[in-house]
Protein 1
Amino acid sequence: MLYPLLASRIALARSGFGKKLLAPASYGLISLGVHCKHTLPDLPYDYNALEPYISADIMKLHHQKHHATYINNLNIAEEKLADAVVKGDTSTIISLQPALKFNGGGHLNHSIFWEVLSPHGGGEPEGKLMEAIGSGWCWLGYDVTAKQLKIVTCVNQDPLKATTGLIPLFGIDVWEHAYYLQYKNVRPDYVKAIFHIANWKNVAERFNAAQVS
């Protein structure tokens, strides 16, 4: 398949979870006829809302610079892809795949990341999610076929659904831009802090939707 990321988005859109994941209101998609232009989604809280665990400076840099860059580059790559498809330029279509995967994954991953954090988060997950988790994770995903949770890591900005088939429930961005300004090179302290602001209600909603997809 020449453009797995786009195919993955279509597949997600056909499921209940995918409609929520890819909804224009949630992820800044503006319909442009057949194509869509991605825009930077608003955060569901203020930049300083996650302090002291994540500083306002980190959040502003992470959201306005890094996430916005992924979106801008994704839009450019998709415009080039659309032009290449019209022209039947297979070589260009193939050459665009790394940019689509990296920037598209960066957009999808960050859009999920903002939602699975909350100034009212922390504590412990509850109910069926708590029973299924066990302990410790990087990316927590749901395997629809096996009907179980799986803990995986993804390199670079590889999107979980498109690269593993798992439905993303909870993820932690461990790129240095997410924590270095505040935590320097002590990544474990940043990871521990995340769980003080984990939005378990949002994760549970994703888990429930994934089970019926």
Protein 2
Amino acid sequence: MNGRDIQNLFDLGGRVDVVSGGNGIGRACALMLAGARAAGGRAIAVVRNVTVAADPVSLVKRAVAELGGLHILVNDAGGGGARRENPVRTGVEDFARVFELNLFSA
């Protein structure tokens, strides 16, 4: 692989990406990808619940329909729960919600 091939490998022009997760790493990835396209491009914001199996499917279908495809997927939805500062005080309900989000989100 020569230098030109490597440069083309990382060229994001014309690529469509979907980022799940709007905080932390997900937000940073979305901002980085948007910055890489600062010269132009189009974006849509779609709110979905990644713990509902049909929602990520509809998100991908919408990206394909409105933006013409899907080339990059950053699946970063997840969380640590409302009581991250003191896990000992986390109730069973909070634990179950965080566990479900981190294990089963699509």
Protein 3
Amino acid sequence: MGVKSSNRMMVYIATLAAQAVIIGLLERFIPSPFSFAPGAKLGLSNLISVIAIFTLPFKYSIQVVLLKFILTALLGGTLSTFIYSFAGGMLSYFMMLLTKQLGPKRVSVIGISILGGVMHNVGQLSAAALMARSWSVLNYLPVLSISGILAGFAVGIGGNYLLNRISILRVYHTELSLSQKQESWLNQELEPNEK
């Protein structure tokens, strides 16, 4: 990777991380739409994690995710919120990355995002159970799974739309697909020329 290409990648990673942090901080001011699941959030900053997974190789997408956690915690979190977010986010990230290996013929961007939403809740509740030294915390999992499915669906629709409609994301996705010799996740009718 040349200097120009390396600088371009650093700017892209920093931009994604900054967007994730800003979205995460702003989301704290949005009331939860999930009245049946107290404490559940939409997880809009996970949109950036989805974008990173589909546009960057592992060594760069993990940097975006880690920067998101660290900077969000430093700018307005506590140690416990960092631990919960980190546990949920890392489990979500690795499960989405693993599921992506199935390819676009077996699973969609939306399906991967839904799995990420549910796994985020599993990770957070597992961290809470370990900290509380009680597995009874996991009794809340069925309720949080519903919010994870709904939030993952919303994030997946947003991610799929952005990947298909924003030209720079299409470029990065195409480069990633070609470098990893994988099929493209983009809508084929849009791929040749974006008009």
